[in-house]
Structure formats: structure tokens, C-alpha cells
Amino acid sequence: MTAPVLEVEDLATHFFTRAGIAKAVDGVSFSLARGEVLGLVGESGSGKSVTGFSLLGLIDPPGRIVRGSVRLGGDELVGLPPAKLRAARGRRIAMIFQDPMMTLNPVLSIAQQMILAVHAHKSVSHSDARARAVAALTRVGIPDASRRIDNYPHQFSGGMRQRVAIAMALLHDPDVIVADEPTTALDVSIQAQILTEMRGLVRETGAAMIWISHDLATVSSLADRIAVMYAGKLVEEGPTARVLRDPRHPYTKGLLGALPSRATPGRELPQIPGSTPSLLRLPPGCPFATRCERADALCATDPPRVGDGTRAWRCHHPVMERAA
Amino acid sequence: MSAAFLSVDRATKIFRPRVSLGERIAARFGAPVETRPVHAVDRVSLTIERGETLGLVGESGCGKSTLGRMISGIYSPTSGVVRLDGQPVMRGGREPQKVTTRVQTIFQDPFSSLDPRMRIGDTIAEGPISHGLTTRAGAVAYAREWLATVGLDPDFATRYPHQFSGGQRQRVAIARALAMKPDLIVCDEPVASLDVSIQAQIINLFLRLRRDLGLTMLFISHDIGVVRHVSDRIAIMYLGRVVEIGPADVISTSPKHPYAQALLNSVPKLVLHDDALVEFKPIAGELPSPLSPPSGCHFHARCPHAMEICRRTAPLLKSYGVGAAACHLVEMDEG
């Protein structure tokens, strides 16, 4: 067992708003081995994206990482001065956003911005930088890359733009890639192409990846392990197949049950009642208790993290349908 | 002469860019001004029976929302006609106008479809009052009744949209549509912007309303899993044309059209009993621009079975027993 490339411990990111303190991420811990893909799943407001942004130090006021640590190859990132953080960002840890236009500058050609990105971390000649950029574009399946690189972002389709953003994230062969819903805005046929390519790329480059998504099926096509978030907390984590086939946390089970693709057509779906609690006014104890049919008085206290080495969950009354 | 409850007869919608004289001159000199028309919907014919739910599936830009809006009477067809119970939904002419309240629409985004400065009770009652379905005096009770029908607390009638979550707003939008006592509801991606757990609640609400009120629905979505769950029949669109239509179980499991098959295969599906866990297969190539769709069958450049004829002639929808597909292969099988 090699040392993990990324270790996150008790990470908490809070937003200090006028309405109160929103605990978007509250005590999240996980680790990532080299070449491993972790799927981070949750609904909107669960804190999955804020977790991703926190890893790269991309939290702006009124948000702040209030405690915890993020160690990348043993080096602490939390509390690092901006210059040092910038040296790591893009080189050792990179991010792919849901909207590729968050990465791309509309008034620069792809070549201009990719060469800037190369030069940000490496002093190489202009032609070397360009050659690297073309190679990166070719790697993500952009046909005729040496010509297309001189185009501007608006000359690419949505799927192609996301490929360019992925190519930029891969430029410096980072150890960790954080991908925040990179296929959500794309059509299913394009999503399938990008998923297939990402699968090949992580295998080829050996990069570890955190794939953030609300879509269990998409995540499962890539992830070795899955972590489920709810109201700022990791409620369940483990190998993809085990979590999906045999979920322990009632929320994971509810999410799987609510998928129409797995139900008998025309029948009412087993639904989770209610909606996500406001992050400003989280109930004490388990945040899912108000929507959970298994909840009792015990659930007003914080459920401990229970696990068996490869998987873990935070629940006082875990689902135990199958013998482990 | 069709006896169908809703009939769409060769409906076509062409969007022409408004080009000023200056721009037209600039285009002559090679400036990048877009003057080409978009054939958003190309001679689509279909029917919906009373009490039936038709699912309409396709990728972005395929024309599914435009078709939905022609059925709703929001867009007037460039040519062709949409009839409900034999009566056209729109009056044509220089200024086309919707002439029925019997079709109502539920939109994707419940944040922009509700007036933020109106109490939701007033939002729900506004249409029914002006069309005489209720009186001003009875409006409050009327709105409360419909709120209860969609599973909301009737006391919410005095609240404003910003006080609701996305799922609750979508319920309000459904109540507003139902309050007009429509015969047909066009739902344009009604659950696309909702979380999985909320999506399940709204899908269940649709199933319940359909059963209790005998609703007829056009259910537009890019998500074939959702559509299969609520629909009796499914139509699949590609670049402005319906490529296949048939019973939901057939279209969602064994369609005949190569695009329908490829679209189905490209959706990641959880297969929990199997080692694979997730199955999907991407479609080759990119979606062509609707500004210059390929000749013949629009799908021929991406189709593994394309033949010479596919490049030249656009196939027509042809029945294959339970369903109908627009593909030369199906024509050859049957003919």
C-alpha cells in the first residue's frame, strides 16, 4: 500500500453570511491513492462542489476554510500563502469546471491561453509550449489539433470546449484532478464520449481524480470508490460496487431508489420525503434525521463514523439488508 | 380529417435571423453575419389520444421544445397545423394568436416561470379569473384548492415565490397550469433542474394527477429514464425530425432507428446485478449544426449502417407494426 497522494482530514468550510453561518462543508475526511478515482456524489447544497473548491484553495469571502487539513503528497495546502498555492495549482492539482467557459478566456485563442498555462509553471520556448499544448489537445480527442489550436473558444462546440478545458487541466500531468460536474451541461451522447475518454486518460496518466456529480450512474462509470455527501457531511464512503449494491446509509439507499431508470414504469417512485435542510439552520445530530424513516431520539446526537476498513458510514441505524 | 384528440399535422418551424440592411450588405462583403434560417422543426406529424402521455426525447437543439411550444400555442408553425379536438390551437395570419385555454404549459425553470412580485395565490387565480373559471370572490378558495391538489399547504397562497424551494415552485407552476382546467398539458423538462430526491416527488405527483384527473400530457425531456417512467408512448427527435415513435416499453428497450438505439446506449445505466455495474456506449461523431443539417437522413454521417440512399433521400416515418421509424433500413425490412 503506497502512501495516499491526497489526504483530507476534518475539512470544514463555512460561509459567514449576513443571515448566519452556512456550514457548507463540515468535517469531511477522505484520502485518495495514486491513480484512484473517487466519485463525490450529492444533491445541490450538499457541499460537494465547495469541497472540491476548498481542495484548491478557491474559496472566496464570505467563505473560509475554518479547520482541517488538505495534504497533497504530504504537503499541507490549507493556510499556504497565495504564491505557494498558485505554484501547486495547475501543476500538482488541477480543476475541471462544469462550465468550460470558467476555464477559457473568450478573447484569447486556445493557443494563446494554453501557452500561458504552460509558461505559468515551466520555462520552455514558445514553440515547445505550443507543441505541448497540441499534444494535450490531441490526447483528449480533438481532431486536427495543430490547426484547431488557433481557434477561439466560441468556434468550438460545448463538448469540444470541455475537451479543451480537460486538456488544460492535464497540461502539467497533475497528481490530482478535481472534476466538478464536467459533463452535466453536455448532451448524453457527448457525455458518453467524454466519460470514455476520461476513463482512458486517468489510466494512461496515472493521475488521481475526484469526480463530483449529482448523477450516480455517471459517477459509477468512472469511480473506484464513491463518497456520498449530505448537508456538508460525508454520510457514506466505500468501493463503488459495494456502496451501490449494498448501501448502508438510508440516504444513499433513498437516492438509489428514487432513480426512475431502476423502477417499474408507471409505478410511484420510492421517494425521500421533504427537502434538504437549510445549511444556516442545521438540526443537531444527523442532518438527514428529519427525512429519514429509521430516525429516532438517538439521531439527535452526532452519528459516529463506523466502518470495516474499506468502507464507512455515519448512521446510528444503518441499513443492513445483506450480510457483508 | 384526423379523429385524434391532439393532432400535429406536418408542423414546421423555421427561425429566420432578423438581418438589417446594413448587416445584409456587410454579409455580401464577407462579414460573419448569420443569415441562414434554422429549420428547428421539419414537417413533424404526430397524435396524442385523450388521457395519453406522449414522451418527447432528444438532445439539445433537436427541436423538442420548439415542437412543444407550437403545441402550446406559443410559437405559430411556419407551415402545418396543430389541432386539439379538431380545432386549431392558433389563429394564423399576420399576428398569430393562441385561441384556446385548453392547452397549458409547465416550463423547466420554476425560478423564472413565476412572477416574483405576485403572491402565488394570485398567480394561480389570475388566468382562471380572466377566463371565468372562478370569480374574484371565489379566487382565494379556488387557489387554495389547487395548492392542496399538488401537495402544498393551502396557507402558502399568500406567500411569494422566493419563499419556496425549487421543488415547491415546480408544484406551484403545476397548480397554475391545472387551475385553467386544461385538456392537454405540455411539460417542457419539468424535472430537469430538480435534484434526484425532489425529481422523484414531482414524477410521483404527475403520475397521481394523471390517474386522478385523467390528464393528457406531452412530456418533453432529454432523460429517457424519466420519460419512460411517465409515458405511454415515446417519440424521439433528431435535428428537427421525429425519427421514431412507438409504445414506451418498445422505444425504451428495443428501438429500430440507429439513432434511437445509439442514444439509448449512450446513457450510463446502473446494472447492479452485473459485474459491469454501469453500461454505456458513446455515439460516434458530433451533433451537426442545425444551420446546415446533413442531406438525406440527418443521422447518416454518424450512422454505422449508412448506405448510399441515406445520403440522398430523407426517409419517411414508416410503420413497423407496434411503432414507426424514419429509416431506410426499416423500410427495406418491411417492404
* Computed Rg of chain B: 22 Å
- Structural class per helix/strand content of chain B? alpha/beta
Structure annotation, total helices of chain A: 10
* Total beta-strand segments of chain B: 16
User: Terminal Cα separation of chain B, in Å?
Assistant: 27 Å
Q: Main sheet of chain A, how many strands, which sense, barrel?
A: 8 strands, mixed
Indicate the mean pLDDT of chain A: 91
Major β-sheet of chain B, in short?
Answer: 8 strands, mixed
**Principal-axes shape call of chain A:** globular
Overall structural class of chain A, as computed from helix and strand content, comes to alpha/beta
Apparent shape of chain B: globular
- The overall pLDDT average of chain B reads 90
Describe the structure.
The complex is a heterodimer of chains A (324) and B (335). Chain A is of the alpha/beta class. In chain A, 29% of the residues lie in helices and 23% in strands. In chain A, the strands form 2 sheets. An 8-stranded mixed sheet of chain A has the order 6-7-8-3-9-10-12-11, with helices on both faces. In chain A, strands 2-1-4-5 form a 4-stranded antiparallel sheet. The longest helix of chain A has 18 residues, at 188-205. The model of chain A has no long low-confidence stretch (mean pLDDT 91). With 335 residues, chain B is α/β, with parallel strands linked by helices. In chain B, the strands form 4 sheets. An 8-stranded mixed sheet of chain B has the order 8-9-10-3-11-12-16-15, with helices on both faces. Chain B has a 4-stranded antiparallel sheet with strand order 2-1-4-5, covered by helices on one side. The mean pLDDT of chain B is 90. The chains are: A alpha/beta (324), B alpha/beta (335). At the A-B interface, helix 7, helix 8, helix 9 and helix 10 of A face helix 6, helix 7 and helix 9 of B.
